Structures are given as C-alpha cells and as structure tokens.
C-alpha cells in the first residue's frame, strides 16, 4: 500500500474518532438535557399539585387533566403503601424504592428522575418519575410521597432521534472525509510519482529533468532542491565530459610532445650505431640528443609541477620583498633570446614597490609570462611594470606581439594549449604548460590574473597580488 493511502486511512480514522468522540459527548449532553427538561416539566406539575391538600378525591378530579398531558400520579402513605390509584394488575407492586431513597424522602428531600413502573405499557419501568415528599402542616411531619411520571417511550423516542441524527452525521462526515482524503492522497501521490519518475530519468543518465515548483509547500521546496540537484548534476556531467575530453587530449599532447624528441634521439643514436653518421658529426649528434633529453626532462618536470600546484601539494614561503631587482634579473636572463628577435625588454618599476609572495614562485610566474611574450613577439617591445596599490601589488606585462582572439584568450590557461603552433619556439613555451602553471600559482597566492588582447595589437597580462594586511583582514 502506498504511503499516501496509508496517510489517507490514518487521516480518515482520526476524523472518525474525533467526530465519534464529539458526537458521543454531544449525544450524552443532549440526552441529559432531555432528562433535565422532562424533570423540570414534572417538577412544574408537582408544584401545582403539592400546593393543594392531597386526597384521593382531589387526585381523581385532576386525573383527566393529567391524562391529557400523559402524566400519572401515584400517592404513597408514610408506610410506603400506595393509596392512589388502587392496585392494578398491570403494575408491579414489588416496585418499591430502596431504603436509602426512602430515608431521603423521609428527610424531606425529593428524588430526581428515575425509572418507575406506572402502567403506561406492559414492560417494566415504563415511566420516568420524580418523587415529592409530603409533609403535614404545621408540624412538618412526613406523611408520604407522590410519584409523578410520564411515559418513558416519549423520552426514548427523542433520545433515539438524537442517536439516529448522530449516526447519520458520523456516516456523512466519514464519507466526506474519505472523498477529501482520497482526492488529497491522489494529488500528493501524483507529486511523489513525478519525483520518482524524475529520479529514474536521472538514474538512466538524463539530467535535463525539471519538476514544476510553485513554492507552495514542502513538496515544492523538495522539487526546488531536486531541480537544483539535477542542475548541479548536469553541470557536473558537462565538467566530467570536458575533463574526459581534456584527458584524452592530454594523452595525445603528451604523446605528441614526447614523440618528436624521442624520434630525434632514436634516429641519431641508431645512425651512430649503424655507422650511418660519420664520426665527425657525432659531437653534433650527441649535443642534439642531450638537448632533446633536457626537453623531455623539462616536460616531465613541468607536468609534475603543474599537478603538485593544482593539488595544493606545494608550500609557499610568502614574504615581502622588492620586485624591481627581480624584474632586472629576469630582463637580463631573457635579453639574449629577445635580442635574436629584435625585442626590447623595458622595466617600469619604482625601487620601493614590494610584493607579498613566495620569491621563487613569483619569479617563475613572471618568467613564464615573459617567455610567452618573447615567443609571440618579433621586432617589438615587452614592458614589465610594477605599481603598489591600496590593497595589492599590480604587475602588468605587455607585449607588442601578434595578439590573440577572444577564443584564444579563454583557452590559454588550458594545459598544452598553444595559441599558434606555427610560431612555437623550441627554447621557450614548447610544452604549452607555462601559462597553466601561472594560473595555478596565482590561485595559490590568492591573487588574480587577467588578460586583454586583440589580433595584431599585442597582449597584456595584469597580475594582482594582495598585500599581507589585506589577506589577514579577509581571514578575520
């Protein structure tokens, strides 16, 4: 049985129990009110009778009036013997009051409504009667009592009508509650089924599921959370697919990057082994083998370095230091290669400009960007500029090279991506890892890097290194 049908049955049972309890309470209250009204009517008749001298003749005179009201009066003397009416065969003479009730009457207290046999029908206790003690005047001595009653069937008929109405109300209310509960259960069951179907779609790999949510109740909140989950799964699946494509591309790129130097090395060594290369060319061949081996070593080391940085397995020894000397050292280091392409490296940095960073990693970041600039610039300039701002140190490395399209700018951070393979230089940027490492190192420094470029207008890298004080304030 489905959950909501179980809830429906529980809901109906609760309603029936509540209605039954309230109905029984109301029934008992109404029943007591009927008895109380009957007692009050009989008490009014008793007040009228007791105000006169009680004799058989007087009772016989008023009997027609009492008969019209379906009321009978029995008169018992002080010895509890009935004086009026005379003994009748249809009235049980052994129907007497208990000792305690007689004592109550003897003391002058009247008895409330009680079942009593007064000959209205053939069944026993066919009347409901009250009992009024009689006292002599002026001595106030007990002289007997009157039993004034009406047929019990009249009261029973009223109570039976109350019972039938109560039962009818319970059945109607129960039926209505069953219908309403069934409709609610069906409505909620459809919503659960919709979630269940959506779950099966997700299990089958369809993450485009969207469940309507009207922000009405907890089920709509659940639907919203479900939609957020499917959206997250969709994004995650797209990222997984992207990563899988990158993995395939990475394997292809690694194989391609390694194949060229390995092919060169194997060819040269095989030529030397087979005597194809004359001895006078061996020195040049060994130099080429050594160069290609170093290239392979750099490729492996840069891959390892990239993975360690991305996995946050490196520790940064961040200190405050002047960046102008670092820029000058880098310019001197790159000057020879830049001169081959008629490139001028210009430094624009005041001596007091300082940065909060790991010195070795900072140098690595700047070197990789400058290498990239040298690779894609010919007969131009590369400007390295450093300025201190309010909450960070800003470094701008700008070249006058070939520039990049918007799509190329978006992809330069990907591992092994090369904006223009035809312009690849064997000394700088041969692996396509330089800018990927720069991005990861900037993230490790909690810094920010941005690129602006356009084809034929050069490229500008902007790096923001937060001050030590800024980072401490952000962590508080």
TrEMBL record:
One GO MF term on file is: ATP binding
* Swiss-Prot/TrEMBL catalytic activity: ATP + protein L-histidine = ADP + protein N-phospho-L-histidine
Q: Name one GO cellular component term.
A: plasma membrane
**Compartments (UniProt record):** Cell membrane
Q: Which SMART domains match?
A: HAMP, HATPase_c, HisKA
What EC designation does it have? 2.7.13.3
Domain named HAMP: residues = 186-238
Q: Does the keyword Transmembrane helix apply?
A: yes
Q: What is its main location?
A: membrane
Please give the Gene3D superfamilies that the UniProt record associates with this protein. Answer: 1.10.287.130, 6.10.340.10, Histidine kinase-like ATPase, C-terminal domain (3.30.565.10)
Q: Does the keyword Ribonucleoprotein apply?
A: no
Which EC class is this protein assigned? transferase
Transmembrane annotation, as ranges: 6-29, 166-187
Where would I find the Histidine kinase domain in this sequence?
253-469
Pfam families in the cross-refs: HAMP, HATPase_c, HisKA
InterPro entries registered for this protein in UniProt: HAMP_dom (IPR003660), HATPase_C_sf (IPR036890), HATPase_dom (IPR003594), His_kinase_dom (IPR005467), HisK_dim/P_dom (IPR003661), HisK_dim/P_sf (IPR036097), HssS/ArlS-like (IPR050398), Sig_transdc_His_kin-like_C (IPR004358)
Keyword set, alphabetical order: ATP-binding, Cell membrane, Kinase, Membrane, Nucleotide-binding, Phosphoprotein, Transferase, Transmembrane, Transmembrane helix, Two-component regulatory system
How does the protein's chain sit in the membrane according to the entry? Answer: Multi-pass membrane protein
Query: What is the annotated signal peptide range for this record?
Result: none
CDD domains from the entry? HAMP (cd06225), HisKA (cd00082)
Name listed for the protein in its UniProt record:
histidine kinase
């Amino acid at each position: 049985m489905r959950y909501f049908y179980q809830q429906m049955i529980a809901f109906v049972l609760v309603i029936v129990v509540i209605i039954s309890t309230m109905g029984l309470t109301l029934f008992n209250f109404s029943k007591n009110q009927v008895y109380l009204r009957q007692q009050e009517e009989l008490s009014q008749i008793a007040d009228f009778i007791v105000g006169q001298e009680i004799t058989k003749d007087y009772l016989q005179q008023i009997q027609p009036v009492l008969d019209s009201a379906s009321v009978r009066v029995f008169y018992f003397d002080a010895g509890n013997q009935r004086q009026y009416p005379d003994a009748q065969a249809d009235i049980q003479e052994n129907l007497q009051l208990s000792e305690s009730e007689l004592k109550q009457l003897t003391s002058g207290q009247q008895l409330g409504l009680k079942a009593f046999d007064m000959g209205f029908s053939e069944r026993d206790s066919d009347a409901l009667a009250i009992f009024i003690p009689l006292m002599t005047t002026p001595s106030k001595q007990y002289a007997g009592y009157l039993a004034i009653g009406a047929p019990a069937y009249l009261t029973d008929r009223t109570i039976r009508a109350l019972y039938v109405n109560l039962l009818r109300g319970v059945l109607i209310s129960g039926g209505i509650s069953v219908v309403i509960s069934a409709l609610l259960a069906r409505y909620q069951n459809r919503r659960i089924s919709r979630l269940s179907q959506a779950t099966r779609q997700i299990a089958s790999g369809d993450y485009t599921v969207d469940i309507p949510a009207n922000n009405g109740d907890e089920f709509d909140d659940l639907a919203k959370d479900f939609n957020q989950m499917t959206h997250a799964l969709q994004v995650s699946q797209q990222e997984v697919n992207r990563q899988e494509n990158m993995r395939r591309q990475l394997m292809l790129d690694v194989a391609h990057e390694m194949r060229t130097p390995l092919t060169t090395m194997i060819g040269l060594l095989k030529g030397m082994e087979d005597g194809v290369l004359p001895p006078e060319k061996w020195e040049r061949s060994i130099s080429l083998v050594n160069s290609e081996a170093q290239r392979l070593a750099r490729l492996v080391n840069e891959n390892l370095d990239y993975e360690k940085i991305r996995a946050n397995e490196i520790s940064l020894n961040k200190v405050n230091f002047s960046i102008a000397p670092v820029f000058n050292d880098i310019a001197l280091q790159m000057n020879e290669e830049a001169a081959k392409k008629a490139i001028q490296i210009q430094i624009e940095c005041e001596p007091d400009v300082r940065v909060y960073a790991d010195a070795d990693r900072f140098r690595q970041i700047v070197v990789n960007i400058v290498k990239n600039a040298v690779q894609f610039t010919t007969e131009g300039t590369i400007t390295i500029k450093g300025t201190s701002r309010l909450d960070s140190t800003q470094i701008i490395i700008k070249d006058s090279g070939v520039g990049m399209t918007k799509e190329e700018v978006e992809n330069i951070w990907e591992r092994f991506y090369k904006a223009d393979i035809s312009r690849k230089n064997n000394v700088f940027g041969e692996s396509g890892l330089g800018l990927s490492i720069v991005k990861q190192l900037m993230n490790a420094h909690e810094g920010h890097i941005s690129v602006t470029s356009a084809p034929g207008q050069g490229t500008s890298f902007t790096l923001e290194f937060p001050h030590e004080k800024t980072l401490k304030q952000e962590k508080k």
